[in-house]
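Please describe what follows:
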Amino acid sequence: MNLSANRLADIIRAFSQEMSILISSYGGYILKFVGDAVLGFFLVNSEKKEDDKIPCLNAVNCALSMVKVIRYGINAILSQYDYPEIHARIGIDVGENVVVQYGWETNLIQYKTEKVETKKPIIDILGYTISIAVKMTSLAEPDQIAIGQFVYESIDRSQKDRFNELPIHTEVWNYISSTSGRIYRIYGSKRD
């Protein structure tokens, strides 16, 4: 709130660049940037439930790396230039979504002596899973990763030890598990 637009843009640009590199390096994809948020995804074979494990591990390891890069990389540089520290809240869930194409983004570019029109699809991801992940993100503390029950069940024991179930009242969180019919549990990363 106290930063000039240029200083804020510097922070957002650095954050977006570093998070994009991390998501890609763990096998994920960037869907879009929304203000100071980045929405990434990892592909899962929807036909085989047992194939969830690797993408879930990759997403969790990516998120853990994101928090470390922000904490020990980006914030260290920001403090050298008298910028405030930044923090991230990360939500991860697994499940079926739908990719929707809304239209095309067209641009005219100069190519040699003529202008050429380029087209890029405008896409988004919709579904129950993405809604849950966004809601979980809002429930996480700064520099905390919130993962859904299905992600927690897919990761190995060493990763599970890094998370505790979050005690959230049903007035705040009332999503129901599609498998058990009970409240879908959320787990938060432990503080270092």
